[in-house]
Sequence to fold (1302 residues):
Amino acid sequence: MPQQSIGEQMYGWATDLFPYCRSITGPGVRQTLQYLRELLPALEIHEVPSGTAAFDWVVPDEWTIGDAFVEDAQGNRLLDFRKNNLHVVGYSEPVDCWLSREELEKRLFSLPDQPDAVPYITSYYSRTWGFCLSHNQRKTLPAGDYHAVIDSKLAPGMLNYGQLLIEGKEDREIFLSTYICHPSMANNELSGPVVTTALARWIGQLPGRRYSYRIIFIPETIGSIVYLSKHLPEMKRRIEAGFNVTCVGDDRRYSYMPSRQGDTLADRVATYVLDAYVGDYDRYSFLDRGSDERQYCSPLVDLPVVGIMRSKYGTYPEYHTSLDDLSLISPAGLAGAYDALRKCLQVLEANSTYVVTNPCEPQLGKRRLYPTFSTLETRQKVRGITNFLAYADGTLDLLQMAKAIGVDFFECAQIAKTLLGHGLIVGVGRREAE
Amino acid sequence: MPQQSIGEQMYGWATDLFPYCRSITGPGVRQTLQYLRELLPALEIHEVPSGTAAFDWVVPDEWTIGDAFVEDAQGNRLLDFRKNNLHVVGYSEPVDCWLSREELEKRLFSLPDQPDAVPYITSYYSRTWGFCLSHNQRKTLPAGDYHAVIDSKLAPGMLNYGQLLIEGKEDREIFLSTYICHPSMANNELSGPVVTTALARWIGQLPGRRYSYRIIFIPETIGSIVYLSKHLPEMKRRIEAGFNVTCVGDDRRYSYMPSRQGDTLADRVATYVLDAYVGDYDRYSFLDRGSDERQYCSPLVDLPVVGIMRSKYGTYPEYHTSLDDLSLISPAGLAGAYDALRKCLQVLEANSTYVVTNPCEPQLGKRRLYPTFSTLETRQKVRGITNFLAYADGTLDLLQMAKAIGVDFFECAQIAKTLLGHGLIVGVGRREAE
Amino acid sequence: MPQQSIGEQMYGWATDLFPYCRSITGPGVRQTLQYLRELLPALEIHEVPSGTAAFDWVVPDEWTIGDAFVEDAQGNRLLDFRKNNLHVVGYSEPVDCWLSREELEKRLFSLPDQPDAVPYITSYYSRTWGFCLSHNQRKTLPAGDYHAVIDSKLAPGMLNYGQLLIEGKEDREIFLSTYICHPSMANNELSGPVVTTALARWIGQLPGRRYSYRIIFIPETIGSIVYLSKHLPEMKRRIEAGFNVTCVGDDRRYSYMPSRQGDTLADRVATYVLDAYVGDYDRYSFLDRGSDERQYCSPLVDLPVVGIMRSKYGTYPEYHTSLDDLSLISPAGLAGAYDALRKCLQVLEANSTYVVTNPCEPQLGKRRLYPTFSTLETRQKVRGITNFLAYADGTLDLLQMAKAIGVDFFECAQIAKTLLGHGLIVGVGRREAE
Fold:
């Protein structure tokens, strides 16, 4: 059997995870985390009890959903949770009642503008119940009595999340966050956890890893808030750059979500990679935020976290509907996002600041870094090296050096390696300004 | 009798004040201040004796003008101060003599390019005398002998100015300055004192006034210099923003005169109000200055003082001539400037800096600030509130917040009020950098 | 005999110096320095022994070249050093051997794209030998045996340079550097030393000279490195602005080479002079550097050194070939560069920072700086003076003042002189930020 490409592997994991009925709590989350632990044996699965305070929030009761359906008087199941878990409003309270067509109407959600799509609706913090369906189906429901059943449980339980800590030479950290709280949807959300898993496996095998990595799989919003409430001081101290991994599965455009400050190391890395290796992409404003960067970049938190996405949440027509299914994502789409994010990590691992060891240009010739005969042509050949030396004043990291001298980042890193080998430069500590 | 609009009120005051023969000193100034004290009972009228030193200057002798005329040999009054007080050069010394047509010529001022206008000319610090007239009239003066009479007095006396201090909750001050030293001219100058008077009356009734207000009615140049020489340290300590109120009466364009620094709180407020509520206006350079901003923004003084005007002094054809009369200004013109300046004061009163009380987004739902069902549409509804919270990091005042999140200043102020009420933000001290 | 223009004088010196066979060491350098000492009697000629360490470098052996030729079997001299000293590769080791046409080929340098030009080639730090010739000549060389002779000596000796220190009132320095290491080429290099010599003579007679001047005539690269290795601390402490003087002889465009920082006093002066008095010129990036700014602006050295050139080295077709001869430069070309550089020195001598002595505008009238009658026209007349006073807050030097108020630098300097005379401003110390 031929080896699968990384894109096909990720797509396979997404296919496995697609049917699970995730929410911000409950068995679907645990089932997902257990699946991921098969791929990432060091993944820790944590649990936080309902009622635990987290900043302004409290961990809600756990939601368990067994079955849900609407049937007509003849017992025909018109809406069936088992066929599509989007049919039930997330966090619906249990119900078993008969309603008229008019009464049922108040419990239904559909999208007139997207009549084939079943919308994704939740109500985590306000007790209610309801059903979602396509607008086309809604229009066909005849008058008559309906039997609505939701076999759910809302009771004190646990909020679960996964945490994977990978140690590097330094305790400074790169942070990856992705979420596992949406039922059967593919670009938002399963692309996130599968790309993050693939990245985590790559990081785990990265030789000479410099940074430590903090990688979390959480329910969106409440999960990041709970996680921050437990780890904020150490995260502030350690994290140099972070990425919120979401909407990384389709084949369309690349997108960039800046941090609130807009110029952190994470922003500089992400825009460098997108500019240099993707080229054309959509650059959003932090005002367009909508995922966990809302927490990571909030005032008093202010972590350097950005997003590199394919089609951004909220901008593509299938978003938060049943149309965001496995046909929307692809091995190539997943692999493209994986490559861009991995490139960011490679840049971060290699990014350093250097200063020359001597005033004036060094004598390159005696180190065989300079050709014997000085002609216009040969002089241009060593221009990369001499430009690097001319700007290595201890204030520019390699990302800034690459821009200053117009040379690709990884080529700069190669020049740095050569010059370090000859003792012509030394690295200088340069902790990113807050 | 129907209530007058504010524009009509101001126009009425200007009409009353128009005939007074003001100069930098003398009875016309006092007469004007007494009139204004009828409207502003708390107005203090100060006097500074001739000979008093003020920085590089000395308060000059007081000028009293009774009558002035030029008559021909037949006793026909060709130029008559009583008909138009612009006919006599301001601060003319007394004279009573006969001159030939040729000798008279050296004492006459007219404008060949504006042959119908009588120019406004003064000579405060160099003793001389003269008459102003229209160029058309000048051309008709026949040869012959002329009797020139100026019944004036130049003698030690007083320089007068008015000061109105209105206390607020804080001793930090907003500063308004206008001048009362020009004879019968309307846009420059009577629009200034009448708009300032209307603003002062509005301020006096402003509920919950936060700032204290320092409002002065002074002779231009020597008056602002004298006032600064007496009050500079406390003004430097207290004044947060100031406005030089001049040329605020005609119906034409709005104009903006920046402070020398160009980015003080006063500049930010004025440009916000003009951008948001006026739209199209003339933005001048400090190099185009010409009124008391020359003193307030001079080196070693450096107060944050700007000007919002209608047609700026020196730019409209009627400026400093008899054509700048009551027909040039209008109730609507005055009211427009009054509205813009009052908006600036409202912005200043409401402008504060806030910081969130918790890391991460607060839970808006439990405070009924967030709708029950999370859909794309409802999420956009609370975007103003969440954007405010996302940027409330204690570094942006509301003016900067309004720009950052693209929401009108007063709507931002309303959001702030709501969030303060819920304890989700607190105000932080943020004294404008010098 | 009519007096020569400064351009003709410089051209005459270049004509005298043209035939000398300069290199980075050797008799040609000393001969050149002795010639210059005739023009600049205070010029000190220094020597540094071979083997002396200078940062990463070591002063090489001295090269003495007596003769060099290639002759055919019939004794016809095909290439003759005595006819054109570019024919021998600089720093060629001695040789006297017979070669076949094929063996000779490896020792020849020509330019296929410029078939009439003899290229200029050196090999200072790697022992070899070779000949340069036009490509047209190369193509005519028949098969057969050739006799190659280079009568050179490479042995411990001296590296020479000239230093001229001219004291001013202050020990802060202006720095001029030019090089004397190229054989018979005119724009690069003889224009450099002759323009520098003319500037030095002008500086020597400058009345009331404020700055001290450090002027050096050095071999390029190794000379500047050696000089810096002996003088860096005092240069860092004293030098306010410097100019690397090269390629200042032709009639074509003016060029500007910024310092690495790009905004030093030297940059501000050079761009002001070029903008105000030249207008259209080529503005290069520091990435285009190629002369001794490579050393002066290197990290850990970081001196404020820029270049004002005519056609920049490396950009004109005759560069580093026999075509860069006396026909390429002209008295007018040299004089243009001389004028631009002298203007820079005049700006530097006059550039100061001032602050007013009083808050508020001073009373200009009592100092006869203001006209008696205040009209629109007369007010505009004193605008230069009042604008200067309005911006003289102790933060702007005259270069910045000139830009701020839109008045020519030297007119600003004249205003400053007037205001200083009236005690209305005082100079403030303002050492350029590093």
About this structure: The two ends of chain C are 50 Å apart (CA to CA). Chain C has three domains: 6-60+158-350, 62-155, 353-428.
